[in-house]
Amino acid sequence: MILYLAYLSLLAALLSAGVSLLTDRREYLSCGIKRLRARTAGWLPLSGKTVAWLDRCLEPDFYALLLRHLPFVLLGISGVAAVLVGAVELSGDFSASATLPLGLPWLHWHVRIDALSGFFFCVLGLPLVAVSLFGPGYVREFEDSKAHALAILGFFTGLFVAGMEMVLLADDAFFFMIAWEWMSVASYFLVAYHHEQSASRRASFLYLLMAEIGALCIILGFGVLVAFSGGFTFDALREVQLTPLWASAAFVLALLGFGMKAGLVPIHAWLPEAHPAAPSHISALMSGVMLKIAVYGFLRFIWDLLPEMFWEWGVLVLVTGASSAILGILYALQQQNLKRLLAYSSVENIGIIFTSLGLAIIFFSTGYPQFGALGLLAGLLHCFNHALFKTLLFLGAGCVLHQTHEINLEKMGGLIHRMPKLAALFLVGTLSISALPPLNGFVSEWLTLQAALQATHLESGVLRSLIPTAAAVLALTGALGVACFVKVYGVAFLGLPRSLHIAHAHEVNDMGMLAGPALLALCCVLFGVFPTPLIDGIRGVIEKLTGAVLPNVTALGWLWVTPVDAKMASYSPILVLISLLVAGALCYYLLHRGNYFKPRRAEPWDCGFGGLNARMQYTSGAFSMPVRRIFNPVYKISETLDAQTEDPEHWRVTALKYQFQVEDKSWYALYQPTGQAVTHLARRLGRIQTGSIRTYLGYSFVTLIFLLWVIS
Amino acid sequence: MAWILAILQTLLFIGGAPLLAGWIKMLKCWLQNRNAPSLLQPYRDLRKLWRKESILPESASWIFTAAPYLVFTVAVLTAAVVPLVAVDLPSARIIDVFGLVGFFALARTFLVLAGMDIGTAFGGMGSSREMTISSLAEPAMLMVVFTLAMSAGTTNLSMGMDYVLDSGLVLRPSFVFALGSLMLVAVAETGRVPVDNPATHLELTMIHEAMILEYSGRYLALMEWASQIKLMLYGVLIANIFFPWYIGRDFSPAALGQGLLAIMLKLALLSVLLALSETLLAKMRIFRVQEYLSFAYLLGVLGMLSHIILEVYYA
Questions:
Q1: Three-state secondary structure along B127-147?
Q2: On chain B, which terminus has fewer CB atoms closer than 10 Å, C or N?
Q3: Three-class SS of residue A252?
Q4: Is ipTM beyond 0.90?
Q5: How far apart are CA A34 and CA A55, in angstroms?
Q6: Which of A450, A579, A606, A632 would best serve as a mutation to test chain B binding (most B beta carbons within 10 A)?
Q7: How confident is the prediction for chain A on average, in pLDDT?
């Protein structure tokens, strides 16, 4: 039953891809239908109503409208079905499996849905529904453009979503890899959608390259398991017996492969390039959902397939996660391109998720399954929350981009006056991602810190001091995260407009483009204030995955979250909200009570000089300057300051031009040397390609002799 | 009954905050050979602001008008969570120390957004500096919290105080380091000398004042009051976590009276320390603050390490 719901979701996504192909095919279609009707007129009489309906559908304007909406309606259906799958799975035990008559003759595709994949269906579904609401309005601008065929966009979007769902359904290594590659390749075409820009081409190539390297690592990781178990199905792989060395090899390969897709530092370079290049609703799906699919793959591999865990792995994951978090947010803080900033912030959030997973591995492998479950709970909850608020923020950035064609923060400002509804929704996203109570981001980061605090129970002094240090890094990350998103909101939405087109911006007139973000904002508030049902669901997922239980987390009822027990720590978001509202209302009442309270509008203080203008505001670059200076070693900064002077002594400066660029250091430390080494190696290998047929015949002869020797 | 007491304690907290500010001002004046204003001067200031007309900048959005309510409300809420005269009040369970840090961040976010809302250079300047300083202060604060929570086995403030009370007067090296770290953090977070100067009105050196430069009248009163509450909050945290003795452990009038007297005395003594340091030290350059806060962080790390190395095996 639940499997059919998942199939429905998958089919709807595939259908959406198929339907999209019909865009711009109106003439062919009407021709075909006319011919079909002429042929079948004798034996298939159509009623007048049907004919009229068909004709109406084929009218140019209506056809365009239909084809713009239909793929997204189907995606919406897919999303709703996915949410239902997730909800059913979270509410009880309904795992189901089947074998599809597809694939290799001796290895049909195995599909299975269990609590873990059900949870990730949920993570996929909600953003998908929001995107399907947002999409029709957003893609409208591509409708008339020759370079950007809507058909291509819709086709690959459908395939991309279907690929992600297949990854979640896969129950054998072979199908898993097919689905994984399907997802990667489909998203490659989406990243390359703006192919007329060289940056997009470069980003998509980098993305494809890294996705394939990652996929190779995963294949090798599965290879290790398959070699020692003798089967491709996950059921067979679960029985695998590995020596610690081989298990560690498989683990490292999985961490590399899935980490590359998730965007862990230092293998994150594709992410800040690819996400801004894609259309905004695709960036939202990639950042909000696809990265979580990578987390799913990692979880499936480590917890479900590998027979045991070692605490050294946990340390590796913890350190990688913490460094991803801090470096991600430090780079995010210095970005001026809003979408690039959001992409770097995804690196940060993935880092937070992997930090909690690292904690979980450490606790599980040292014999504290209860605390391990707490770490896992924090990680999974943060996956869900990040999917919500990152999608919300990307869609918000999409709205701004759609209305103003501007993505550079330095040009924005004062959008709260021009796009008040969007500004309110974006504020919710900003507060959520900054992990402020009582919104959803706080719950998961709080649980991560609570899990880290359980380090006191560990025997090893090294671990006991390492974990709090990692937690302090998380605290720094959190604080910088607040700074980063305050900067985004303050520079983009508050203050005065910094350019003309921003000054003339107005609210989106397509209701769907606001409804998508609004749905997500509502979820952010709702899951922030009532996290207990979701936590209960995830607790079930963890119990089925690992057998570990968290007895007390919701023991005091739906009002309270108590990670270990009520004595240790408790948090009641609903009481926080109520007391905030009550105290706020009282405060408002007291302020406005009785006599007149009518604030007067006047000019702001300009030191008496007059003539305040937008150029006097702090810019995005100026806001983050102190951080740039303090954390200088992390960045590669190039600054230029041009001062034009009139007099020969250069005392009277008439014009100043300051430019700065912040680049990722990992690019110079890791990627350029690797690229150079590969080129160098290729040149060396190229020497054996002489171009003369005799040499090649000689190679074939030597190879033949060698093979014969091997066989005999 | 317990909830009513909690609300009363919160009201006492809010009402007492300006008094503490007045006391500090008085001490500073004495130390600097000036004539001190009355102890009640902050109340008079608030009343004066309450009666004045509020002026909103033309470019202000609703964020600017909402921020004072939010900042004040969050200050009230944090005051409700921190035990003042008695432990075991039910309000302390709503949120723990991490949540307290989250509340501070929430209030700060709106303060900073309000600073950026008008679009003047001062607002942005203050906002940028505030975010930088608090980003560096937060990890140090968290190290302190970790040290305490690891010793006490809880992040609940009330339970933590219970633990310190129950274990009696023992000298823990980790607590000494943590105390030092928390004091440094408190000075930075409440915007006192040497990090920020609450008395300054020189635009280029302001941090907190630069953000609220455009507020006037009742809005300014709320902002000022909230920052007084925050100052008192850090004082109470230091006093009641590290020296919780004589805090009320049940809700009998005698215990509550004793708790009230004790906290007043502790805060009065802490204020002497603050006033002394404010008189003796000069304000730092903004880019020296990172060294100051790194030092606070280092103390926090030392505290945690000394807890792990020295104390765990004897606990």
A1: HHHHHHHHHHHHHHHHHHHHH
A2: N
A3: helix
A4: yes
A5: 10
A6: A579
A7: 90
CA angle, B146 as apex, B145 and B149 as ends, to 5°?
Answer: 80
Pairing type for strands A600-602 and A96-104 reads unpaired
| Token pair belonging to A284 | 């939202």
What is the C-alpha to C-alpha distance for residues A351 and B96, in angstroms, rounded to an integer?
24
Show residues of chain A in contact with B105, CB under 8 Å: 434-436, 478-479, 482
Quote the DSSP letter at residue A267.
S
Q: Could you tell me the pLDDT band of residue A556, with boundaries at 50, 70 and 90?
A: confident
B139 with A630: Cβ contact below 8 A: no
Output the CA torsion B49→B54→B56→B61 (10° steps): 90
pLDDT at B313: 55
DSSP-assigned beta bridge partners for residue B188: none
Q: Which residues pair with B248 in a beta bridge?
A: B86
Residue A93 structure tokens:
């035990």
DSSP-based three-state secondary structure for B81: helix
Count chain A–chain B contacts defined by CB atoms under 8 A. Answer: 248
* CB-based contacts of B19, cutoff 8 Å, min separation 6: B39, B40, B42, B43
Instruction: Report whether A586 contacts A375 (CB < 8 A).
Output: no
Signed CA dihedral, A271, A272, A276, A277: sign only: negative
For B8-45, the pLDDT digits (tens) are 999 999 999 999 999 999 999 999 999 999 999 999 99
DSSP A644: E
Instruction: Give the residues across from A99 on adjacent strands.
Output: A110
In three state form, how does the secondary structure of A378-437 look? HHHHHHHHHHHHHHHHHHHHHHHHHHHCCCEHHHCCCHHHHCHHHHHHHHHHHHHHCCCC
User: What pLDDT, in 10s, does the model give residues A171-193?
Assistant: 999 999 999 999 999 999 999 99
Q: Which of A534, A542, A528, A572 is CA-nearest to residue A389? A: A528
d(CA B247, CA A25): 79
Are A455 and A484 spatial neighbours (Cβ–Cβ below 8 Å)? no
DSSP class of residue B283?
P
Task: Please determine, for residue A143, whether its predicted confidence score (pLDDT) is greater than 90.
Answer: no
Between the CA atoms of A193, A198, A204 and A209, what dihedral angle is there, to the nearest 10 degrees? Answer: 160
- Name residues 3-32 of chain B within 8 A of A (Cβ): none
If one compares A241 and B204, the residue with the highest pLDDT of the two is A241
Report the pLDDT value the prediction gives residue A147, as an integer from 0 to 100: 63
Q: What span, in angstroms and rounded, lies between the C-alpha atoms of A509 and B282?
A: 55
Nearest to A21 by CA among A182, A154, A135, A157: A154
Task: Output the six-digit token pair for A288.
Answer: 């909000």
Min distance B225 CA to chain A CA atoms (Å)? 12
CA atoms of A415 and A293, how far apart (whole Å): 34
pLDDT band for position B177 (cuts 50, 70, 90):
very high
Cβ partners under 8 Å of residue A266, min gap 6: A666, A669, A670
Q: Which residues of B touch A425 (CB under 8 A)?
A: none
Which pLDDT band, with edges at 50, 70 and 90, does B314 fall under? very low
Alpha-carbon Rg for chain B, nearest whole angstrom, is 19
d(CA A183, CA A519): 26
Confirm if B36 and B26 have CB atoms less than 8 A apart: yes
B11: amino acid identity, one letter = L
Chain A residues lying within 8 Å of B53, measured CB to CB:
599-600
Q: Work out the pLDDT band at A169, boundaries 50, 70, 90.
A: very high
Phi and psi angles of residue A320, each rounded to the nearest 5 degrees, phi first: -60, -45
Which residue is associated with the tokens 């004897």?
Answer: B314
Provide the 3-class DSSP secondary structure of residue B251: coil
Question: Tell me: the pLDDT tens digits for A281-304?
Answer: 999 999 999 999 999 999 999 998
Cα first-last separation, chain B: 36
